[in-house]
């Protein structure tokens, strides 16, 4: 498994940056669904819950990309 930088219009970008954007895009519908189902009102601190869920989604993406390469 080797993550290397890539050149984006002359700027070297770390490989985790697109993964973070993908995790954020996946979190948008997940957060909306959790809000509509009332899940955010059941947790002690909704912001911490959202950050923890984002971390889990990002970890899954990084592990999947690492397994593919």
Would you report the number of β strands?
Answer: 2
Global structural class? mainly alpha
What's the N-to-C terminus distance?
A: 6 Å
What is the succession of H and E elements?
EEHH
* Count of discrete structural domains: 1
Summarize the structure.
This protein has helices at 16-37, 46-68, and strands spanning 6-8, 11-13. With 69 residues, the chain is mainly alpha-helical.
Plain-language structure description:
With 69 residues, the protein is mainly alpha-helical. The chain has one domain. It is built from two helices and two strands, in the order ββαα. Strands 1-2 form a two-stranded antiparallel sheet. Helix 1 (16-37) crosses helix 2 (46-68). The protein is elongated, with a radius of gyration of 15 Å.
Which features would summarize this protein structure in a list?
single chain; 69 residues; mainly alpha; two-stranded antiparallel sheet
Chain-wise SSE layout:
Layout: E1 6-8, E2 11-13, H1 16-37, H2 46-68
Antiparallel strand pairs: 1-2
Helix pairs in contact: 1-2
